[in-house]
Design a protein that fits this description.
The protein is mostly beta strands. The protein has a domain of about 160 residues: Leucine-rich repeat, LRR (right-handed beta-alpha superhelix). About 5% of the residues lie in helices and about 15% in strands. The chain has three helices and twelve strands. The strands form five sheets. The protein has a four-stranded parallel beta sheet, with no helix packed on it. A two-stranded antiparallel sheet has the order 1-5. The protein is globular, with a radius of gyration of 23 Å.
Length: about 300
């Protein structure tokens, strides 16, 4: 029977090293072969081997190994189907500033659980789970987003996620949510009632390709500072109604393809829409129902014709 691979962290602590002469090879020798990961993210010194660099700016490094016959070392977490790793448990025990692309293109992972967050100071979570196309379970109950400013493409391509609980997310400091849920094609509903978008400037492609979303409540969204809404709902083909009466578009310069491909949309409330002459509205309603286009045309007499082109 072929031995299955797994990622294994090598926890190396300087205080332990002083008391006992333990080196990394000892950790490797006694590690077990499993199909899940216990991922302890802790600082390590670069003289002990190859490292994954989580925070390039501050040069804090972390050790991660494949526990297979070759004792393969990797420099980033990038797993594919043939790696046979399906579950990850994560403990964050350091003041890290960036988780950008942490699990980027980990196509084989089905479950990730964040067990603990200690002394967290993360500001960047952009593309954190980007391309995790097999991810079915994501436990973020212990997630700390208090300092995060960038959530761009955070769940981009998580096409197997059917539900996502973000009730504990603090988005008070976030400025970029572009493509945040892009390609989450299995999500049927998404509760964003607790989202604070007061500082957000970019929400383009935010729900692009969320083709299973049947309802979306954005009544609490503050778009006063948003400049780009292009393709925001592009491909949301299951949405039948959408209320955006609270949307302030005074500063928006790009709405192109905003509702493109919303082929089931019958009710769209845009009472506060500002159709600024300088705003790009090309193909804004391409692929939408003709009856919806007629409603919009009758409601907004000064709407650009380019908005209705397919």
């Amino acid at each position: 029977m072929t031995e299955r691979k797994t990622l294994k962290t090598i926890r190396y602590n300087k205080s332990i090293q002083r008391r006992i002469n333990i080196n990394i090879n000892h950790y490797k020798a006694y590690s077990e072969t499993k199909t899940s990961i216990e991922l302890d993210i802790i600082p390590m010194k670069d003289k002990y081997g190859k490292f994954i660099n989580i925070n390039k700016e501050d040069k804090k490094y972390f050790h991660i190994y494949f526990n297979d016959n070759k004792k393969k070392e990797i420099e980033n977490i990038s797993l594919n189907k043939d790696d046979n790793v399906s579950k990850i448990s994560v403990i964050i025990d350091y003041q890290i500033k960036s988780f950008s692309e942490l699990f980027y293109m980990c196509k084989c992972i089905e479950s990730i659980e964040f067990k603990k967050f200690y002394r967290n100071n993360v500001t960047d979570m952009s593309s954190m789970f980007h391309g995790c196309s097999s991810l079915k379970e994501l436990n973020l109950n212990n997630f700390n987003t208090n300092s995060v400013t960038n959530m761009r493409s955070m769940f981009n391509g998580c096409s197997s996620l059917k539900e996502l609980n973000l009730n504990n997310f603090n988005t008070n400091k976030v400025t970029d949510m572009s493509a945040m849920f892009n390609g989450c094609s299995s999500l049927k509903e998404l509760n964003l009632n607790n989202f604070n978008t007061n500082k957000v400037t970019d929400i383009r492609w935010m729900f692009f390709g969320c083709s299973s979303l049947k309802k979306l409540n954005l009544n609490n969204f503050n778009t006063n500072n948003v400049t780009d809404m292009s393709s925001m709902f592009n491909g949301c083909s299951s949405l039948k109604e959408l209320n955006l009466n609270n949307f302030n578009t005074n500063n928006v310069i790009n709405m192109s393809y905003m509702f493109s491909g919303c082929s089931s949309l019958k009710e769209l409330n845009l009472n506060n829409l500002n159709t600024n002459n300088e705003t790009d509205m090309s193909c804004m309603f391409s692929g939408c129902l003709d009856e919806l286009k007629l409603k919009i045309k009758s409601q907004f007499k000064n709407f650009k014709e380019e908005a209705f082109k397919n």
